[in-house]
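User: Hello! My lab partner asked me to get a predicted holo structure for this protein. The small molecule is MGD, SMILES included with the sequence. Please write out the structure tokens.
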Amino acid sequence: CARGNAGVKQLYDPDRLKYPLLRKGARGDGKWQRLSWDQALDHAAEQLDKIGKEYTRCGFLFMAGTDMQSTFVHQFAEAYGSYNVISHESNCLLSRNRAFLDTYGVMPTPDVLNCKYVIMPGANRFEALVTPDSMDLMTAKGNKSKLVVLDPRFTKTAALADEWYPIKPGTDMAFFLSLAHVIISEGLYDKTFIKEKTFGFEELREHVRQYTPQWAEKETDIPAKDIARIARELAAAAPSAMVYPGRRSSDYEDSTQIRRSYAIVNALLGNWDQEGGLQVPKKIKPGSMHIEAPFYEDNPDDRVDAGRAQMMFDEEGSFKHTRDAVIEGKPYPVKGWMTYKTNPMQTGANRNKTIEMINTLDFMMTVDIAMSDTAWMADLVLPAPSYLERQDPLSAFLAASTCSGVITRDPVVPAMFESKPVFWIVKELAKRLDLGEFFDFTVDDFRKAQLKKIPQVAKALKEDGVYNITGPSFGIHKGKPFKTRSKKIELYNTRYKDKGIDPMPVYKQPKTIPENHFRIVVGRNAYVTQSASTNNSLLWELEKENTLWIHPKPAIAMGIKNGETVFVKSPAGKVTIKARVTKETRPDTVYMDTGFGVLSKGLTNIFGKGACIAELLEDKADKISGNMAMHETFVTVTKT
Ligand SMILES: Nc1nc2c(c(=O)[nH]1)N[C@H]1C(S)=C(S)[C@@H](COP(=O)(O)OP(=O)(O)OC[C@H]3O[C@@H](n4cnc5c(=O)[nH]c(N)nc54)[C@H](O)[C@@H]3O)O[C@H]1N2
Ligand SMILES: Nc1nc2c(c(=O)[nH]1)N[C@H]1C(S)=C(S)[C@@H](COP(=O)(O)OP(=O)(O)OC[C@H]3O[C@@H](n4cnc5c(=O)[nH]c(N)nc54)[C@H](O)[C@@H]3O)O[C@H]1N2
Ligand SMILES: [Mo]
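Assistant: Hello! Below are the structure tokens for the protein in complex with MGD.
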């Protein structure tokens, strides 16, 4: 992984944040005053106290991205008394999780390693690396498993696939309902499995009668004969065959239902708990330091984003809906915001709205290793050590079942400059807020509590640095009920029905692209992590700026040449960027990488380079989960 190899440059980056900074002048002006840690912490604690008293504790929002120390930010929010806690996940994969949980009662892990036939829709495992899955898929390819990729772009995964279909964006559900049609009408499903393990098969049979391959061809641009053939091949390879559940699902307004259609085809294949199929995650649950959080009488009844989506995850919420609620001040004001290891200015669709949100706040603080665009907008910026400089608690990782385990992290070098881990930061803040008793422990103590009931993990971590869960990875769910209402796999979901949601996925055509417009889609390449590593000098060598991928057909019609600068405009914003004229995208779809067009002058390699896709993306949301929907934006492209 290029990013892993370039980690050293994240550590020794001259652009690293070195000491606490307080905003001087207007937000985003980039004028800062250096503070001592004592001054910075006193100031932050004062703001936390003031906002808590004036607007209730829920008037302070906490947001932490993926990190082994994010748990401490959550713990701090709990002790402080706010349940407005969000993560990056509602910009990532919540609609996928919603769909699979509401079908299987659990988010399964795909055993791509042993799978003979993988359909991969809207996932890019050879660039968007999910390390175990990417490695397993490579091994599986070497073992002659078949890979069918559906993607409007010719990704590296498409390049290595046996078959690639540049599907019309937003029509994947039509493809999968049609697979279900063929599999059911030709009797290719696993009959015993369907009878014993699933709920609502007769309803599904009736429902998919209408979705013929001929019909799906018109929706998806994939030939009917290929749809029928793929359905038959898939069923023939079952149960060692799958529709890969995918990862990022922040794409469409009905993404939960789209992913439900993937889940349902998997059920027809009977691949549950089978080698090469969808498996039960082999969870290991480290203990934690339980805290008896204080009760704050004056707090509102619910999260600020409650009720804005049909079935939001309470513990995750939604960035899109929280941001709307903060801007509207409804149902109650939120005036403080702490962000940790997340950069929503670049990764939350509609950057102007994030700026609008920030401008309604009394106080915002960001803990980061670099002056990200989010840090750039904050009032107080606190420098954190990178992953190579800190001691972290344990973390259980779940991936392909062959690769689940527990890891931990110790510093390779001491923390540089004045950087301090977020654990230390919240501990110091807690002391100042009379909440010290909740953080009266060290990271070592925390680890010990995590390991208390799992001595085998403690031993493995000590001896090998990693604990891998061993034992069989399939056949372990035999005879057990599913954690769903019917205790079976729900082809038909009665909870959805009760809430007025379609109990089975009903195909709705994506909105028609207006004339002279394109759909813009999101994705990533192998050497950039979302918005975070574009400024890393070693990786920046590989991509100096992002470009707008546009197909030659429209480009030639508009007289746009490769490398020429163009205007791209959407209802959310407008950018200028160089065009990359390429057949690697459909004529109706444009694409650009994330993490450029930054506002922050603290990112010296990339400042002034490329354009920001979050500036263009409208903030639509998946209706069921509240997950951001980033592929629902249409743009115009014009010559400058
Ligand atoms: N190198 C690298 N690896 C990463 C990351 C990273 O930033 N960099 N991020 C990690 C994270 S957090 C995640 S969530 C995963 C994301 O992993 P994935 O979800 O596999 O990756 P994305 O790049 O988001 O790719 C989605 C693909 O969907 C395609 N697409 C767009 N619209 C449609 C459509 O309507 N139908 C279909 N079938 N395809 C469509 C896009 O062109 C894109 O190639 O990657 C992880 N791995
Ligand atoms: N336009 C667009 N939007 C997207 C996506 C996309 O591909 N394109 N992908 C979506 C997906 S799948 C996801 S998961 C989210 C991810 O979105 P984010 O959670 O915003 O993730 P990153 O963009 O990686 O930003 C991580 C931030 O943490 C900082 N950081 C890195 N290491 C450390 C550290 O050790 N300590 C601290 N304190 N900070 C650190 C980085 O400098 C950066 O500012 O974005 C989503 N939104
Ligand atoms: Mo993600």
